[in-house]
Design goal:
Layout: H1 2-22, H2 34-61
Helix pairs in contact: 1-2
Length: 65
């Protein structure tokens, strides 16, 4: 059951990162202020880290013996 929850969290984080990277209604990078660029970098990095943490947790969850 926990493995499914971790997988769902990973999918949600991956979809968040892809939305941030591929959204057509966002400002172009060169029109963003430095503060907006920093917030976007932190959001993408955080989403990627949550994705990887959920994926690793789901993989190693079943290997407890």
């Amino acid at each position: 059951m926990l493995r499914i929850i971790f997988i769902l969290i990973s999918i949600g984080a991956l979809s968040f990162v892809l939305y941030l990277l591929l959204n057509r209604r966002q400002k172009p990078w060169h029109e963003m202020s430095q503060d907006e660029k920093n917030r976007k970098k932190i959001a993408v990095a955080g989403g990627t880290m949550v994705f990887l943490a959920g994926l690793i947790a789901a993989i190693f969850m079943g290997k407890k013996k």
